[in-house]
Amino acid sequence: MSKVQKGTKFEKTVEKVINYIYSKYETVSVKHNVLIDGPDGDRQIDVLITVTIEDLIFEIAVECKDYTGRLSIGKIDEFVSKLEDIKAAKGIMISTNGFSTGSIKKAKRNGIILYSLTDKFPLDDKELDIQIIIEEVIPMETEFNISVSREAGLTMKGETIIRDPIIINGYHLYDTLKDNWKNQTLNFKLTTAFQDINVAQIKAPYKIRYYINKKNNITDEVELLNLSMKLKLKINYYTIGLNELIGLNVLENIHESKFQMFIDTDTILGSLPNAKPTSKTYVDNFTGVKAVFLIKGDFNITPVGEFYSVK
C-alpha cells in the first residue's frame, strides 16, 4: 500500500468515527477530502465538519496524520496556517502515533484539539482486558399454520390447491419474513424454542391465494380463519478480548486524557473467526467487565411445512 493509499484509508476511518460522534445531530454534516478557497488558492481539508444553526454555518477542519512517529511542532504550524486561510471555526488534528511535547503546547495555545486514533485500547495489564461477548442468532426453521372456515372453504373453486409460494394479502409470506429479518424489523425473543412471530406488512383480515387450475396458473383468494407463524432460532456464543478485535477504533483526547471506543458491525463480523466458542452458562455466569453484541445470521432456511385445515 502506497503512502497516499494508506493516508486516504486513515482519513476514511477518521470520517467514519466522526460520523459516529455526530450522527445524532441532524444539523451536522461530515465530508471527506474537501477543497475550500483560500487567499492563495484551494486548501485541501481531510475531513470537514459543517454545523448549521439557523442561518449560521460553522466549519470545523480535521487534519489526519498517519505517521510512524510523533507529530512535530511544524505540522501544527502548517495546520494553523490552513485554518487561518479557510477561516475555520475550529481545528482538530488526529494522529496514529501521538504528538511531541512542543506540538501539544502549540496546539493548545491555538485552540486546536488533538486526538490519537489507534486500534488498541491502552491497558497496563493484559489481565484487565475487557471481554466481548458475541451472541450469534441464526434462523433455523419456520412453521406456518393456516386455517379456513368451513363456510369459506365451500366457496373455493376448482382444485383448491394451496402450496408454496404462499401469497397472503398480496405478499410472498416467506420472502416478506426474510426481508423483515434482514431489515431488523422482525421482533423475536432470544430463545431456541419455537416462538410466535408476526410480519408487520401482513395484517388481518388475511386472504390467501389458491389455485383453481394449477396447470393453467388460474388463481383466486379465500379469507383465512387463522394464520400463525413460528420461528426457531439457533444461538451461538463467543468470547474475544477487546484488544483482539479487528477494526477497533480508540480515540484519545490528548489534552484531557479521555478515551472513546467505536465498535461497529464490521468489527464484530470481522473478528468472529478469531473468537472462541463458549456456552450460555459461561455467558450467564461471567462476572467480569464485559460488553455484549448481538449479531444476526442470514435468513437462508426453507419452511419446514405449511399446515392447511378447514374448520
Structural class: alpha+beta
Helix content: 10-25%
What is the total tally of β strands?
17
Radius of gyration: 28 Å
Low-confidence stretches: none
Query: What's the shape?
Result: elongated
Percentage of residues in strands = 35-45%
What string gives the helices and strands in order?
HEEEHEHEEHEEHEEEEEEHEHEE
Question: What does this protein structure show overall?
Answer:
With 311 residues, this protein is α+β, with helices and mostly antiparallel strands. It folds into 2 domains: 3-118, Trna Endonuclease, Chain: A, domain 1; 123-242 and 265-311, no CATH class. It is 23% helix and 41% strand. It has helices at residues 3-22, 73-86, 101-109, 150-154, 173-182, 265-271, 280-285, and strands at 28-38, 41-53, 56-65, 90-95, 112-118, 131-148, 167-168, 171-172, 195-197, 207-213, 218-223, 226-241, 249-253, 258-262, 276-278, 290-296, 306-310. The chain has a 7-stranded mixed beta sheet with strand order 1-2-3-4-5-13-14, with helices on both faces. Strands 6, 9, 12, 15, 16 and 17 form a 6-stranded mixed beta sheet that branches. Strands 7-8 form a two-stranded antiparallel ribbon. The longest helix has 20 residues, at 3-22. It is elongated.
Secondary structure blueprint with pairings:
Blueprint: H1 3-22, E1 28-38, E2 41-53, E3 56-65, H2 73-86, E4 90-95, H3 101-109, E5 112-118, E6 131-148, H4 150-154, E7 167-168, E8 171-172, H5 173-182, E9 195-197, E10 207-213, E11 218-223, E12 226-241, E13 249-253, E14 258-262, H6 265-271, E15 276-278, H7 280-285, E16 290-296, E17 306-310
Parallel strand pairs: 3-4, 4-5, 6-16, 6-17
Antiparallel strand pairs: 1-2, 2-3, 5-13, 6-12, 7-8, 9-12, 10-11, 12-15, 13-14
Helix pairs in contact: 2-3
